[in-house]
Amino acid sequence: MAAPRDNFGRPIVVVTGMGVVTSLGAGKTENWAKLTAGESGIRTITRFPTVGLKTTMAGTVDFVPIEPFSSTDLSERLGDMAAEEAVAQAGIGARGDFPGPLFLAVAPVEVEWPQREELGRAAAGDGDINYDALLRVSGGGRFTPYHHRFLFGSVANALADKFGTKGSPISLSTACASGATAIQLGVEAIRRGEADAALCVATDGSVNPEALVRFSLLSALSTHNDPPQTSVKPFSKNRDGFVMAEGAGALVLESYEAAMARGARILGVLAGCGELADSFHRTRSSPDGKPIIGCVRNALADAGMAPEQIDYINAHGTGTPENDRMEYLGISSVFGELAGKIPVSSNKSMVGHTLSAAGAVEAVFSVLTLEHQRIPPTINYDVPDPAIPFDVVPNKARDARVTAVMSNSFGFGGQNASLILTGEPA
Prior knowledge:
The protein is α/β, with parallel strands linked by helices. It folds into two domains: 364 residues, 3-Layer(aba) Sandwich (Peroxisomal Thiolase, Chain A, domain 1); 35 residues, no CATH class. The protein is 32% helix and 19% strand. The chain is globular. The two termini are 16 Å apart.
């Protein structure tokens, strides 16, 4: 009997395990309960002093202690937690022997301010930090924790060692599209027949002073600090920016044939992936919307679906004035009149913008929407923007028939990715 294929003759890619950690909590159960209840995970920052900063709140994951704090260490821990939950649900392979590759989305790894200061003090006494000083601190080339933590692949190597993934682990960073890109790479590996399974993880623990200052200098962050829970207002007329957040999402992907052969429970199908980037600006999207339009069209084409087959759009929905407007331009250009009829919501209104992790976190929430037939709300949606006439699901979850979800990730610098997820194949 021939193996099942999609309409293009490719292996069908399914989801058999998922894990998630956000500012709402750890695990799918806690996150889904709070998400559909319209709870917010945004809180006033207590991890470091915020005196003099315009933005003093974030979706921090403070219930996972990291001492001394390092964004990269937290990213690794969050990725570990999400992957552990996903692999356990999938019930795949033996412990520490995952039968496929790892694709990891992670923020660019840098030595952070406190570690730089310590390195400076330990250097030649003049405070200069250069390659020679780093070698002296490391004891003539031997790795120290600081050496390890500015290697981009350090998180992927740790996860690959723990879960026993096969082949060289892939680390990637495509701004806010990173999580969706990691999933796309897993889908493509399975479609090409290079693997029967893939572990796709996206993680980000980047709420630190330097990152907050950088985004503030771009005027990208909300300054609605009090109360912090009302700061993220996607698609509202009074939106004023996004809110940084931490989290991780993980998916175990398998070919439908392999999953059925081992009797796995299928949670959903990765029906389509689309991507398109532009070089218009380092942070802004092209004002004509062509990269977003092309990305959405590519996802639909890859899934072999028409716009009217999409029942729900899990929007990028950051709450920045320009990004929300560009998302509407892109969706309305492809969906036409349907853009005002298909339910739309933004998970970021509750969990904040998990940056490199967002695409995977929101993919997990999209599959949960398919499972429970319930659309999470966009909270703080009290002053609709008449220039963005989406059918926003406002403030309370909506029960609805959902068979196909488009989940969008439109990142800085015009790095765009869209995923289409559906229920179990017939």
